[in-house]
Automatic annotation (TrEMBL):
Keywords carried by this UniProt record: Calcium, Hydrolase, Metal-binding, Signal
Cofactor(s) this protein cannot do without: Ca(2+)
GO cellular component: cytoplasm
Domain (Sulfatase N-terminal) ranges: 31-418
Gene3D superfamilies: Alkaline Phosphatase, subunit A
Protein origin, superkingdom: Bacteria
InterPro entries linked to this entry: Alkaline_phosphatase_core_sf, IDS, Sulfatase_CS, Sulfatase_N
Organism field: Flavobacterium nackdongense
UniProt-recorded name of the protein: DUF229 domain-containing protein
Family in the record: Belongs to the sulfatase family.
Length: 542
């Protein structure tokens, strides 16, 4: 090829790119997207009917958004559920069921929402916890961001108060914790531990579940990241491209640390302990856990050793329960204040009117119900999640129709007027928002992996004790089926793999006190829901 041919070839290529690329005018016409992720936030918000919690900023967003009352996560733990919402794919299709599997190690070519938006003319950037660090690369999934990702948990020193600096272990600001850290650091040094071992020793030794100190918001990471997010929005204002800006807040995730002013919003005696703190009658043991995440904190009873998994949950004195619930509420209000700062800046910059705003909590959280704490189950308190979506030109409403996190990707595309990729597993929720449809699906599906008890393994004769529970939630019922032998929905179903089945009727039993799967009055319901579950599983087989 001669020089003239080469020039001609690149000229044709350049013309083709110009023709196919969105014009500046087209780009400006597209709405911006503010994508707010919140860690461990269950739907105890004012806009979800909770009259005790103080969440004025999220409630303000709700007044111009669709509040999805019946939204469910794909798996009640950070890494898998975040991989699902970011790709529109279910855990069995992302290959992420834990907190150690890299999403792109399993599927290098998987398409994320921000990655797709880049191809549609968007700039994309993020700050805070959006993906879980353990399930992506060190750049927080490099293909997702047109601008390199900002800091994850810790932001730059200049965003923290000069007198305090960054929080200890990324979490604590109390003088007591800092004094203890100095003590344990010296202990570790005297033992001859290396730098990494010293860091681990201190972080495990100084780990209270709660902290209440009189400090400014930016003493903690969420407050510092809110300041950084405001600066980023100011820069985005002048860009010619529409933006996708993801802002992740880590509270109310453990530990429950928040400035004293947020604790002072509540009285300890008003904290609502769970009404039902037992396993349901006729329950399936594999559905439960021992609240190990909370037990890792130094002011919580340590994990008990047991061999047959007959003991579940974590029994705490009422005073301790109220302290933890108080901390959870305080952390929610602290997070809400940071959300408010970001929304205020969006307003001040004149960007709100042309911005899609999405706020979501990655899964629910047990606060003592079923004697459980944290997430990690297929029960209602772990799988039901807040989801609010505001879009230009669409009036505020409340949707009680089933929705799930895999629906967020196609919904944002639909609202933004960009192509919805064929590879996503979810459906657009826009028809629920503009009221052109009453529902887009009959039910939501959550799942959770577990190891079955030794007795169940021996009884069923499994080659493996690993179990996956699939949970179908429609408007009234939850039907959960636990399948052994490393079953995944991409395989053919076999009745011989069933470890246990649960059925709960939320009209009559909102606290899940009785598993009615063998109740004669529910046999037709059980048969119908099993058929729907099997149809779902069959549809997933590759």
């Amino acid at each position: 090829m001669n020089k003239r041919d080469i020039v001609f070839h690149y000229l044709i290529f350049a013309i083709a790119m110009v023709i196919s690329a969105p014009s500046v005018a087209q780009q400006k016409a597209k709405p911006n997207i503010l994508f707010i992720a919140v860690d461990d936030l269950k739907p105890i918000l004012g806009c979800y009917g909770n009259t005790l919690v103080k969440t004025p900023n999220i409630d303000r967003l709700a007044k111009m958004a669709t509040v999805f009352n019946s939204n469910y996560c794909q798996q009640a733990v950070c890494g898998p559920t975040r991989a699902s919402i970011m790709t529109g794919k279910r855990p069995d299709n992302t290959g992420v069921w834990d907190l150690k599997t890299g999403m792109r190690d399993v599927h290098p070519d998987i398409l994320s929402l921000p990655q797709h938006l880049i191809s549609q003319g968007y700039s994309t950037q993020g700050i805070g916890k959006v993906y879980d660090t353990r399930c992506v690369d060190k750049q927080m999934d490099a293909p997702s961001w047109s601008v390199p990702y900002y800091n994850y948990f810790k932001t730059e020193e200049r965003y923290y108060p000069q007198a305090l600096g960054a929080p200890l272990n990324g979490q604590y600001q109390s003088p007591k914790s800092k004094e203890l850290a100095a003590k344990f650091k010296k202990e570790a040094q005297d033992k001859g531990l290396n730098e990494k071992e010293i860091e681990d020793y201190v972080s495990k030794s100084v780990k209270p579940a709660v902290e209440c100190v009189d400090v400014p918001d930016n003493a903690y990471n969420d407050g510092a990241n809110a300041l950084r997010a405001i600066e980023i929005l100011e820069k985005l204002k002048s860009e010619t491209q529409p933006f996708f800006f993801a802002v992740g807040f880590s509270k109310p995730h453990l530990p429950f640390v928040a400035p004293k002013k947020n604790w002072d919003l509540y009285q300890r005696e008003d904290m609502p302990v769970a009404a039902f703190q037992e396993q349901p009658k006729n329950s399936v043991d594999v559905a439960f856990h021992n609240s190990g995440e909370l037990r890792a904190y130094t002011d919580i009873p340590p994990l008990l050793s047991f061999t047959d998994q007959k003991e579940f949950g974590l029994t705490l004195p009422i005073d301790k329960q109220k302290e933890l619930i108080h901390g959870y509420y305080a952390a929610i209000s602290f997070m809400d204040a940071q959300v408010g700062k970001v929304l205020d800046k969006l307003d001040a910059l004149g960007l709100t009117k042309n911005t899609i705003i999405v706020l979501w909590g990655d899964h629910g959280w047990h606060l003592g119900d079923h004697n459980l704490w944290c997430k990690h189950t297929n029960f209602e308190q772990a799988t039901r999640t807040p989801l609010l979506i505001s879009a230009p030109g669409i009036k505020a409403t409340i949707s009680n129709a089933p929705s799930e996190f895999v629906d967020v990707f196609p919904t944002i595309c639909d609202l933004a007027g960009v192509k919805i990729p064929d590879v996503v597993d979810g459906k657009s929720l826009k028809p629920l928002m503009d009221k052109t449809a009453q529902s887009v699906k009959e039910f939501s599906i959550s799942q959770y992996p577990r190891s079955s008890t030794k007795s169940e393994t021996e009884r069923q004769g499994y080659a493996s004790s690993k179990v996956m529970g699939y949970s179908l939630r429609d408007k009234r019922y939850r039907y959960t089926i636990w399948l052994g032998n490393d079953f995944r929905s991409t395989q053919a179903f076999d009745d011989k793999l069933v470890v246990g089945i649960e059925l709960y009727d939320y009209n009559k039993d909102p606290n899940e006190t009785v598993n009615v799967i063998n109740d004669a009055a529910y046999q037709s319901v059980a048969k119908d829901l099993k058929a729907k579950m099997l149809d779902y599983l069959k549809s997933q087989v590759k």
